[in-house]
Amino acid sequence: MSAGHRLLGAIDVVVTDVVELNPEVKRFHFARPDGQPLPAFSGGAHIVIEMKDGDVTRRTPYSLSSSPFETDDYQVSIRRDDNGRGGSLYMHRSVTPGMAMTISHPSNLFSLDKRATRHLMLTGGIGITPFLAQTAQLIRTGGEFEVHYGFRSHDVAAYVDELTARIGHRLHCYADDQGQRIDYDRLLSSQPAGTHVYVCGPTPMIDLVLSKAKEHGWPDAHVHFEHFAKAPPGEAFTVELKASGITIAVGEEQSLLEAIEAAGVDAPYMCRGGACGQCETAVVEYDGELLHSDHWLEDEERSAGQKIMPCVSRFRGKRLVLDL
Amino acid sequence: MSSRIVPTILSRPVYGTLTPTTASAHLLIADADGGTAILDLAKAAPAGFFDSAEVCYVPGADADFSDELQQLSPRQFHTSPTIQALLPRLSRTFERLHMGTSVYLAGSESLIGLATQSAMQAGLDYQALQTEHRGTLARRVQCVHCKGTTENVTTQPAECAHCGLLLFVRDHYSRRLAAFQGVNINAEDPTDVPPKIEEFT
Q1: Domains and CATH numbers, chain A
Q2: Which residues of chain B neighbour A197 with C-beta distances below 8 Å?
Q3: For residue A283, which of A231, A236, A242 has the smallest C-alpha distance?
Q4: 0.90 surpassed by pTM
Q5: Does B176 reach chain A within 8 Å, measured CB to CB?
Q6: What ipTM is given for this predicted complex?
Q7: What pLDDT digit, counting tens, does each position of A112-143 carry?
Q8: Which end of chain A is less crowded, N or C, counting CB atoms within 10 A of the terminal residue's CB?
Q9: Given B106, B133, B160, which residue is the final one in a domain?
Q10: How far, in Å, CA of B9 to CA of A311, rounded?
């Protein structure tokens, strides 16, 4: 990573606290060194956290889980993923109170639709985080909502007590190990007109809710989801950057975007999770297979093979040329 | 019959063709020639479609398909003498609607626009509604000067029924008001009166 490339909308912060919520989830608190408020945000917004882990720089999006009305203390809650590329492990093992870090300005790809007469929130596991901020917002601004929160067991379910205290009967919990399941058919078939549904959780849950919503006749405009794809590790490959006139190597644990940045090439990005569309890059030519992991490109665009999202997607094959 | 509406500026609504969905309930609203859009949809609809359908229809003076629509045996069939008379019922219908009910609007732009407005007031997104234009091109026009709305405008320019100004009827449309915008065409010289052309028939 070249020192010249500063995180987009970078804000220097200090880690003010690290709280272990359960064996898998820690909450990290950030504040400005001078104690001044951080930028305002709305429920559902995320920040990108820059992690300098030895020679590797990772930039990973996390939803803000704190109240949008408390901007002197940003909070993110991170589940440790032992099989990921190491971002969450770094946060869990190496980040301690007092550390200086860099985060991005918040942006929101999962905001509440203010036209809704009612908000139905469906979540699984650590997907609860954006809803913590959104429910805090709705309690202050008013608005009808319900949260349906599924998790493996109460030992690893973060924020159940806090949410129960905050929103009471509007929280419905479902523990896998007690055989409890969210009844999507019942929920999606019994909502009054004007309800919007929001889902954040593991990929299979999001896919299931999207297909159930379609099956029950929900229009797309009333269905919202957030899923930051993780940049998966994979085989190393090389890529030619046509406009820059260079060829670079992408390591097994490195994302394509990180490799491009490490080579000193200024590539666009925002969420770094395959959701926002900012980093969409034209594929000039390729001989091999584009390994798409984003939620941005349409199926037709994928099969056309003319675009790639370097923040999360990879390549396997002989030759890849990008218009960068 | 295909719509005679030509897309112009982005603001100008365009409409599609009603297609039956597999939703568990259906609400179909039409006026005058819009009835034929429902009859056409019925030809493509699966068996039992109308068992869970409610049809609200405003017959036109020379386009009344009430009998044909009733023969589709919808779960509920209701007619209203005018669009305005239908609106209070629509407002209640949208309020008690469940998400997942498919909504189909067909006929004049006034019917489609006012029903869309009613649906939006219940919190439905306008993109959640299927629409098909049939019949008259007559417009609801809001005078930008006095804010009065004139119904069934067929000429260009047209007189504001409220303040009497001569209005150029724009394609600029407001979903909130369910009306096209009318702007005084001869503000600088009120004696300059361009000829009226029957443009929206």
Answers
A1: 10-108 (2.40.30.10), 118-226 (3.40.50.80), 237-322 (3.10.20.30)
A2: 99
A3: A242
A4: no
A5: no
A6: 0.82
A7: 999 999 999 999 999 999 999 999 999 999 99
A8: N
A9: B133
A10: 36
State whether residue B6 sits within 8 Å of chain A by CB. Answer: no
Interchain contact, A190 vs B122, CB within 8 Å: no
Nearest chain A CA: its distance from B58 CA (Å)? 24
Count of domains for chain B:
2
> Which of B133, B152, B178 lies at the terminal end of a domain, its last residue?
B133
Chain A residues with CB inside 8 Å of B104's CB? none
pLDDT band at A85 (very low <50, low <70, confident <90, very high): confident
Closest to B41 in 3D by CA, of B72, B18, B66: B18
CA angle B44, B50, B51 (to 5 degrees): 140
Tally C-beta pairs within 8 A across A and B.
65
**A28 φ, ψ to 5°?**
-115, 135
